[in-house]
Structure formats: structure tokens, C-alpha cells
Specification:
21% strand, seven-stranded mixed beta sheet, six-stranded antiparallel beta sheet, alpha+beta
């Protein structure tokens, strides 16, 4: 009986203990579930971001830039493929590990050690001499850190400052150290998980092969195909095409934040000038995107391709590279011939410019400039100076007289057919003489343009100013008269932006003085304000097409890139854009056109010596007095009076296909020398243009048909864009 009670009592204790155990387990599981729920709900998003940040890092890799073609679809700028060796460091990679990789690479590849700087040597010395570097920090330095006088990171700078020249010389004297250092400095430039080019120039087949076979033993090292910009036509139009930065310079510091905000990397190559810079957003390729999956320590686990990348979009220029080459050759030949001719007195002739446009569309066919300089041995060297066509301004001379006559028409002070007596003017009691090169007597506006009368323009300008001229007496001209005359000139693009799609265009040089009446007279004949060659080209195009100032354009189309040779579909065509219509009637413009025809075809025309009259040219020559300043070896500056020989024109005069402007500054010191060089250049331009046209028409080439500004009845086409904004 007693045994049975004891057994029953023992049985009651077992379930009780089990219940306690189960309850305890239940509480533990409940706490765990509550904790997991709390973490998931409250901090789940933060932890998810942290995991994504550390395990999935997307980086961009290089993509080639778009190509550039001329109007006839000839490749102007291309990409040359380059074998490249790259290095991608992990977030956890130490400097010592990078140094070890550099030592291994130094046994395979060679880099130019000329780029190694003193700071690179110091960093390398500290890394390779840790015990000696530690001794450069004194107890006093550590005390300053403890006292808060300096920051701990300042200790490294103290080490750098205390490295002696003798210690650095140890590295310089060691060819092995310099080879390793040249590679090491390239490895440490890169950002975590971003490929850094170690070498892409002159990578030999042997180097490429050994690296490709050793990738497993070189963490982070890889091989790829890089690219370099190739300018197919050499120096032709080189300054206009611009340049691209290299991986060494990357993004210019002054624009770093701008490009980083657009998703660029610091070492990306970008357009630095002119077309390469102006159309950076078009030419820049879309980078391939690779997702690097890493562990929490930053070690690479695998790579996943997100986007294959794409070459940048292609540009089709309005430039005719074949014509451009011919015009550049002509400029050089004519300058050298003039300098070799003693009678030309071309001692200071050192540059010449020519712009050729389609006067109906504004498309620029050539933008040519050449400059002659002396090298160290006194030998003449020819430089491309196409930038001078729109960035350098000179005295235009009589080329502006068409605008002066039209200003007189519009202001109502003269009418087509008005006579003026061409005899010298005498200003003030000093009787300052202002006349033409010869007394022409009573002449009309047409004769004034044909023979280039100064006096006709003087009297027109004085009438616009409301000035009362009496020989030998003081003459007063209101300052507003300058603004009035310039406002007419501005309608043609003189003294204002032409609107060309290139940066840093000059608006010319506007004379500041409005107090002297003689300066207004000089302004009317192109002897006061200075203009660029491009401004003159826009001005003569406006007269040629019947009064429409058209925006000069260098880019015709943006094209989709394609892998095969040739061009892809058009993404964006550039239509002709009218900036303004001049405030002159068609009859008045035709009157000036007739005067320009007489310049070439009249018996006394200033360009009657042209040998290309079969192309029906019209235009206006201009000889302007200028000042050449020479800097002597001792630094002294000496000024010389010179002449600019300029010419504007278009052809054929009854249906203009091309308009041109030529400026030859400082062409001669002989004031009895005529401006034959500009007429000769103009002849060669017309000859080249029409001969190329004939060759292409006969099937040797097939340029695409162009849009024009006006239709046969003289009205604007529907697709022409017009900007009527005031341009004064």
C-alpha cells in the first residue's frame, strides 16, 4: 500500500516538470519571435539597404565615343582599339596587397617611369620601409596627438616631410623599384570595384598573352579592349574638332562636380574643347554596367552583367572635308608665295582665314585658318588656326559697304540711284582729309560699291547721324549715331554672335570712343569695329539669300551608332534656322546685289581681275589699314602700319550655292599694293567647289540633297525655324 502511494507521487512530479519545461520553451520561442518581428518591422529596411550596399555594387565600365563624319559620310574622327590591362581593387584590398601585385606585374609589363613624382616616391618609401618610417615619428609628436594639438592623420604628413633626399635616392637609383613604383601608382588611382587602366599604350602581344594566362594569380587584374581617338584627316580642321582627355587627366577639376552629377567617373575621358566638348552628351558612350556581388568583407564573389553598354551616338558634320583640305592648301600656298615675292611686301603676313557657307541653309562647308610660325631653328612651320575664323577679329575694310548702303536706304537718307559727289571731306580747322583712293566725281550707289567709294559711305553715315558738314569747320556727331549704324550692321550678323554651334565665339571688337566724328566715318567703311571671318560670311550670306540671316551650323545630324561600317538611322536632323529678316525691302537688297555683281563683272570693279567669272561670282573686296605689333628679343614692342586684304562673295549670283569670306590680316606694308591674294583665294575656292560638284554629279560621289531657306517663289519653307529675337 505504501509502495503504491510512493509510485503515484513520483508519477505526479514528472508531468509537472515537463509542463515547466514546455512553458519555458514556449516563452523562449515567443521572445525570439517577438524579437525577429521587431527587427523585421522596425529595422528591416535599414538592414536590407546595408546588405544591398555591401553585397551588390554596380559599376560602369568604358564605352567608346561616337564617330564623327563629314557631309559626304567620310569618317573624320574614329576610335582605334587598344589592348589594355586593367586593375579593379576590392574594398578590403590593402596597400601592401596592391604593392605585391605591382611587383608581380613589373616582371611582365613595363611602364614609363617619367610620370613618377616625388610624392609617389615618398609614399612608396614609407610602404617599403615601415620600420624606418615609424622612427620618423617622435614621442613629442605622439604627445601632441594626445594633447589634441595635432590630429593623428597629420602624422603621415610629418613622415612625408622628414624623408630625406638620400632616402628617396635609394628608390631613384634602383631600376627595379622604379618599375614597381610606376605600376603601383597606377593601381592606387582607382576607386573600389571600378576598373582602372594600368596600361593601354604600346601593350605588346607578349605582355597581353602573359597577363591573360596569369589572371588567376593576379587578383583584380584583367585585360580588355580600350580605345583611342583617331583623327583620320590629320591636322585638317583639328582645332575645330577639339580634343578628349585621357585616363590620366580624366574630368577637368573645374567641371568635376558637374560631370559626377551626370553619372561620370573621375577618370572618364570627356570632350575638352570645341566639337568634342560641345556635343559631349551625344558623343559620350553609354557605359556597360556590371554588378559586383561581394561578401560583408568586401571580397568579390561574382560579377553579373546588367547592361552591355553602347558606343556614343555619331555626328554628321556639314563640313566637306575634301573641300576643306583644298582650301587649307590654298591658304598656305598663297601666303608662302606672297612672302617669297619682294614686291608683295608681306614681311608680317602670318595668317589667313576662309569660311565657306551654304547661304540658304547656313551649313558651314569649310572653316579654314592657317598660321605661319618660326620654330627654334628659324624654319617656317604651318599650324592649324581654324579657331581664328570665329574667335579672332580684324578690320574688315570696304567689305561692309553693302551694309552701309542698305542702312542708308532703310534710314531714308539715300534711295537706289541716288548720286553723291565723291570728293574729299575736310574735317575741323585742321582740315583732316577723308577721301577715297581716287576722286570719282558724281556717282550712284552702284558705282560706289563697284569702285569702293569711301566718300559715298561717309556722306551716307553723316546723313544717318543728322550731322551738318561744312568743309574746314568743326563737325558734331551725336553719340547715338554709332548705335544707329551698328544696329543696321547687327541685322547682318556684324558685331553680334552668329549663333554657330561652337563655344567661345567672339562678337568682334567694338570701338568704345563715340566722341570723334571721324570715327563714325571710319565705321562706315570698316575701319573702326573689327569682325570675325565667320561674321563676314554670315553677312554676305544674308545679302546673297535675299535678306535672311541664317544661323551657321556645323552639325547636320545625330545618328544611331551601328556595329558595322557606315551610319545608322537619323536620330536628330538639324534644320536651317533663321535668326532674323533684315529690315530692308527686296528691291533694296537686289540693288546691293547688283552692286556686288559689278565688283566682279564691272569695267572698274575692284575684283574684276578674277579668273573665275564663269561661275558668276558677286561680292565685295576690302582693304583695311591695320597695325602689326612685333615683340623684339629684348621684349620691346614695335608697331608697323600694315594692310588687311579681305574679300566676301557668293556664286552663282542668280542662284547662290556658296558664300565665302576671306580675311588676310597684316598682308602687306606697301600701301600701293593691291589685295590680289584675297581675290586669288576666292577664285580657288570657287574652282574647287564647282569642280567637286561636277565630279560628284557625274557619279564619282553622291552628296545628299540639302534643305534650302527659300523656295523658288522666295517664301520661307515650312520646316525652317525662325527666331525673330532682337539682335542689336
Amino acid at each position: 500500500m505504501t509502495n503504491q502511494k510512493q509510485k503515484k507521487k513520483k508519477k505526479n512530479y514528472v508531468p509537472y516538470r515537463l509542463n515547466l519545461l514546455f512553458f519555458a520553451v514556449f516563452l523562449l520561442f515567443s521572445a525570439l519571435i517577438l524579437r525577429l518581428g521587431f527587427v523585421q518591422i522596425v529595422f528591416g529596411e535599414d538592414y536590407r539597404k546595408e546588405v544591398d550596399r555591401e553585397e551588390n555594387v554596380t559599376v560602369n565600365t568604358l564605352a567608346p565615343r561616337g564617330k564623327i563624319f563629314d557631309r559626304n559620310h567620310n569618317v573624320v574622327v574614329d576610335n582605334t582599339p587598344l589592348n589594355a590591362i586593367t586593375y579593379t581593387r576590392m574594398a578590403s584590398t590593402s596597400s601592401k596587397e596592391q604593392l605585391e601585385i605591382a611587383k608581380q606585374l613589373s616582371e611582365v609589363i613595363t611602364l614609363d617611369t617619367k610620370e613618377v613624382q616625388e610624392r609617389d616616391k615618398k609614399d612608396y618609401w614609407i610602404l617599403t620601409h615601415p620600420e624606418e618610417a615609424k622612427k620618423l615619428i617622435t614621442d613629442a609628436d605622439m604627445k601632441k596627438v594626445e594633447d589634441g594639438e595635432i590630429e593623428e592623420q597629420d602624422l603621415y604628413q610629418l613622415q612625408l616631410d622628414r624623408i630625406t633626399k638620400a632616402q628617396l635616392q635609394e628608390i631613384t637609383d634602383s631600376e627595379e623599384d622604379m618599375k614597381v613604383l610606376a605600376i603601383f601608382r597606377e593601381l592606387i588611382k582607382g576607386y573600389p570595384l571600378t576598373p582602372q587602366i594600368v596600361k593601354n599604350q604600346d601593350v605588346t602581344a607578349k605582355e597581353y598573352a602573359i597577363i591573360s594566362e596569369s589572371l588567376g594569380n593576379l587578383p583584380g587584374v584583367d585585360i580588355m579592349t580600350d580605345w583611342d581617338r583617331q583623327y583620320v584627316f590629320g591636322d585638317t580642321l583639328r582645332s575645330i574638332l577639339g580634343r578628349v582627355s585621357d585616363t590620366e587627366s580624366g574630368i577637368p577639376s573645374e567641371r568635376l562636380q558637374e560631370f559626377l552629377a551626370k553619372g561620370y567617373s573621375r577618370n572618364d575621358r570627356v570632350g575638352m574643347s570645341q566639337i568634342e566638348a560641345e556635343y559631349e552628351n551625344v558623343l559620350q558612350g553609354q557605359k556597360a554596367r556590371v554588378k559586383n556581388v561581394t561578401d560583408s568583407s568586401g571580397n568579390l564573389l561574382r560579377q553579373e552583367k546588367v547592361f552591355e553598354g553602347q558606343r556614343g551616338k555619331d555626328l554628321v558634320l556639314s563640313i566637306d572635308m575634301e573641300l576643306q583640305q583644298i582650301v587649307e592648301k590654298v591658304l598656305v600656298e598663297k601666303m608662302l608665295a606672297a612672302k617669297a615675292n619682294p614686291a608683295a611686301k608681306a614681311e608680317f603676313l602670318d595668317r589667313a582665314y576662309a569660311v565657306v557657307m551654304d547661304p540658304k541653309t547656313g551649313e558651314v562647308l569649310t572653316l579654314a585658318g592657317k598660321q605661319l610660325v618660326k620654330d627654334e631653328n628659324g624654319k617656317t612651320e604651318v599650324l592649324d588656326h581654324a579657331l581664328g575664323t570665329f574667335q579672332s577679329a580684324f578690320e574688315p575694310g570696304s567689305t561692309v559697304k553693302g551694309a552701309t548702303v542698305l542702312a542708308g536706304f532703310e534710314h531714308g537718307v539715300i534711295q537706289p540711284g541716288s548720286y553723291q559727289l565723291d570728293t574729299p571731306l575736310y574735317l575741323g580747322q585742321q582740315r583732316l582729309k577723308k577721301g577715297s583712293y581716287v576722286n570719282m566725281g558724281s556717282i550712284t550707289d552702284l558705282t560706289a560699291l563697284e569702285r569702293s567709294s569711301n566718300v559715298y559711305m561717309f556722306k551716307t553715315a553723316l546723313a544717318i547721324a543728322g550731322a551738318n558738314y561744312r568743309p574746314g569747320e568743326s563737325l558734331y556727331v551725336k553719340p547715338e549715331a554709332y548705335d544707329t549704324l551698328r544696329s543696321y550692321f547687327a541685322q547682318f550678323g556684324l558685331g553680334v554672335n552668329t549663333g554657330i554651334d561652337l563655344p567661345n565665339e567672339s562678337t568682334g571688337v567694338i570701338g568704345p570712343d563715340k566722341s570723334l566724328p571721324g570715327l563714325l566715318l571710319d565705321l562706315s567703311i570698316g575701319q573702326y569695329d573689327n569682325y570675325t571671318t565667320l561674321q563676314l560670311a554670315q553677312y554676305v550670306s544674308t545679302i546673297a539669300n535675299g535678306g535672311y540671316r541664317v544661323k551657321p551650323q556645323l552639325v547636320r545630324e545625330v545618328r544611331e551608332p551601328v556595329e558595322e561600317e557606315g551610319l545608322g538611322p537619323v536620330l536628330q536632323p538639324f534644320k536651317p534656322e533663321i535668326l532674323n529678316r533684315v529690315d530692308m525691302t527686296d528691291a533694296e537688297i537686289k540693288r546691293v546685289q547688283e552692286g556686288f555683281i559689278r565688283v566682279y563683272h564691272g569695267n572698274q570693279g575692284t575684283a574684276r581681275g578674277s579668273k573665275m567669272k564663269q561661275y558668276k561670282p558677286a561680292g565685295k573686296s576690302g582693304t583695311a589699314q591695320s597695325r602689326y605689333v612685333q615683340t623684339l628679343e629684348n621684349g620691346k614692342k614695335v608697331g608697323y602700319d600694315t594692310l588687311n586684304f579681305n574679300l566676301i562673295g557668293y556664286a552663282p549670283y542668280d542662284n547662290p550655292e556658296l558664300a565665302f569670306a576671306i580675311m588676310v590680316p597684316y598682308a602687306s606694308t606697301g600701301f600701293n599694293v593691291t589685295g590680289g591674294i584675297s581675290t586669288e583665294i576666292g577664285d580657288e575656292i570657287m574652282k574647287a567647289y564647282f569642280e567637286l560638284k561636277e565630279k560628284r554629279t557625274n557619279g564619282l560621289d553622291n552628296p545628299e540633297e540639302q534643305n534650302t531657306i527659300t523656295t523658288e517663289d522666295g517664301t520661307l519653307p515650312e520646316d525652317a525655324e525662325q527666331d525673330t529675337e532682337d539682335n542689336e
